[in-house]
Amino acid sequence: MPRTAASAPYPTRGVVLRSRPLGEKDRVMTILSPERGKFAAVARGARGPKSNLAPVSQAFTLARFLIVHGRSLDIVTQAQIENAHTHIATDVLKTAWASYLCELCDTVPEHLPDEMLFELLCVALARIDVAAETALAVEMVGRWFEAHFMDLLGHAPTLGRCVACGEKINIAATDTTQRLAFSPVLGGTLCQSCGPRDPQRLSLAVQSLRALRRLERAVEPPALEELALSTAARHDLRQCGIYSIAAF
Description:
Helix content is 34%, strand content 23%.
């Protein structure tokens, strides 16, 4: 019988979102690529201490891969690390945030290319890797990612206008103390009349909602001093992100 022609290898850049053991020696990596979206590939022998693919099979690694099509899963034949983000693995907080961002990316459908999502994750992981050893510095990178992730998927919250009736919510620029109703389920701020429409609505400081707007518009994660958030506003921003992602 004639031989089946071997599939041609294809190159791609990608971030390893997660990795799991396969059999005794191999690993299955879930990779996010700008050209191919999210997909799984096997790194044969990657669990061996002397394997060339062992380092690249670790989560958060940005690398260039050479891959061939397999019967059920694609197979990594070569890889060159661009950024291992080594400081993330040595810090519990950084690891937790990087894992969270990769889990968010893992929720998108497979084989759906999204270059903007890939670049967003690359920027966030790089900034977390080099961030100062403070919880707030790392968290602000995470909140920036959350805001852009929701926007990319078409779920950015409506701010400054009532999501229920469309009425503009006017707050003086000098007012930093007023609190507004925010509904993660409905997807944005509510005016006083429409507030009761969501019994589970949050009450957020206007300062935190302004910070969220700045995060959405920022090309890169802004410095803490640029946001000038009080402790209460940081708490509200955290609540806004957690509940909005949960509603999504």
